[in-house]
Specification:
The chain has a domain of 205 residues. The two termini are 56 Å apart. It has 354 residues and is mainly alpha-helical. The N terminus is likely disordered. The chain is 61% helix and 0% strand. The chain has 15 helices and no strands. The longest helix has 29 residues.
């Protein structure tokens, strides 16, 4: 019986899985690499010189694409005819109607020309500066969205050159900048040599304005600022169509590029910008956090905690010895298991006269 019982217990221990399984500790090099990557992906205070360098590199890339465009002018005009024909097919070719209607109001179309030429840069830079000063912990993630959006747009300019409606042959559109001789437009005067005239798809006026609007709406506290954030990309859509600088399908391309930018930022930082901390630790705190000792502390496993609450108490009416296993029944109750004669004999005799 005893041997059989032992065999059963051994077999039970062999087939019963453990409830707590501790995996193997990662190698030191792998853990160190993971922690270094975590430190790079953590929000940190932006540096002005680095931001200026990014702008310079972006302008250099834009120049490369711009210099390749003149060889694709014929392709850009063919693509414009194809876009215009596609919009007629789906029944949404309304750009010419809007262009002529707004052009009939001189002060309105002139204002839109200046809007198109200036706010595209002014508002975007203003939002970047606001993030840099008031939301440093979210600046890098938001800036990455903007740069990733612009980067994929540059690829679109090279692969799909597209002429704006105002440059189409026989399209019936009015070039409002040339007609009203407004200053400051990147599509007129001496600025023509500095701007890509056949880079209408995707529209970065929509991509950048929608980035500004969503950023302000998510981070601003004042209700009026949040409302303006949503109205800004909507007004920009009207402007780019009324001035005949873009088709409405170009705006769809800008939204697609912005979606790609958000995906890149979310993949790198693991969160959207408005969910990241507003502030970042100072240089001294950051050095302590990402020092070898601090990185090692981040990699330690948390100690297991004991269950909280008071210890279980014995059932009422039982002594302390009843909770101990292996005690004989005689020790627990001396009178248990005895005959009445043995119990009477164990009673000590009373003293005489008691």
């Amino acid at each position: 019986m005893g041997e059989s019982h032992v065999t059963t217990q051994e077999n039970r221990g062999a087939v019963t899985p453990s409830l707590v399984v501790d995996g193997p500790e990662p190698a030191g090099a792998t853990r160190s690499t993971a922690l270094r990557l975590r430190s790079l992906r953590s929000p940190r205070r932006p540096r002005l010189w680095f931001e200026i360098l990014l702008i310079a590199v972006s302008y250099w890339l834009y120049s490369l694409v711009r210099n390749a465009v003149p060889e694709q002018k014929a392709a850009a005009l063919r693509n414009a005819d194809w876009i215009w024909s596609l919009e007629h097919t789906v029944g949404l070719a309304f750009e010419e109607t809007v262009n002529r209607a707004v052009n009939s109001v001189t002060w309105l179309i002139v204002s839109m020309n200046y809007y198109y030429a200036t706010l595209h840069f002014v508002v975007t830079i203003g939002v970047l500066v606001w993030l840099f000063r008031r939301h440093p912990g979210r600046y890098a993630a938001a800036r990455l969205i903007l740069f990733a959006t612009t980067g994929v747009a540059l690829l679109g300019y090279y692969l799909f050159p597209l002429a704006p409606p105002r440059l189409m042959d026989g399209g019936g559109f009015i070039d409002t900048v040339a007609l009203h001789q407004t200053w400051g437009s990147m599509a007129s005067g001496n600025f023509k040599e500095m701007s890509n005239q056949y880079a209408a798809m995707p529209s970065m006026h929509i991509g950048w304005s929608l980035w500004c609007g969503l950023t302000v709406f998510a981070l601003a506290r004042a209700p009026w600022a949040r409302v303006l954030g949503l109205l800004y990309p909507a007004a920009t859509l009207v402007v780019i169509v009324a001035t005949a600088n873009h088709f409405w399908l170009d705006a769809v391309g800008g939204v697609a590029c912005l979606t790609f930018g958000y995906a890149v930022s979310y993949t790198w930082y693991g969160s959207l910008p408005h969910r990241l901390p507003k502030a970042v630790p100072g240089p001294a705190a950051a050095r302590r956090r990402f020092s070898p000792r601090g990185l090692a502390a981040l990699g330690r496993r948390p100690a297991r905690r004991r269950p909280s609450g008071p210890a279980p108490r014995p059932a009422p009416g039982r002594g302390r010895d009843t909770a101990r296993p292996g005690l004989s029944s005689a020790r627990r109750n001396p009178q248990e298991g005895r005959t009445p004669q043995e119990a009477a004999a164990s009673v000590p005799p009373s003293a005489p006269g008691a």
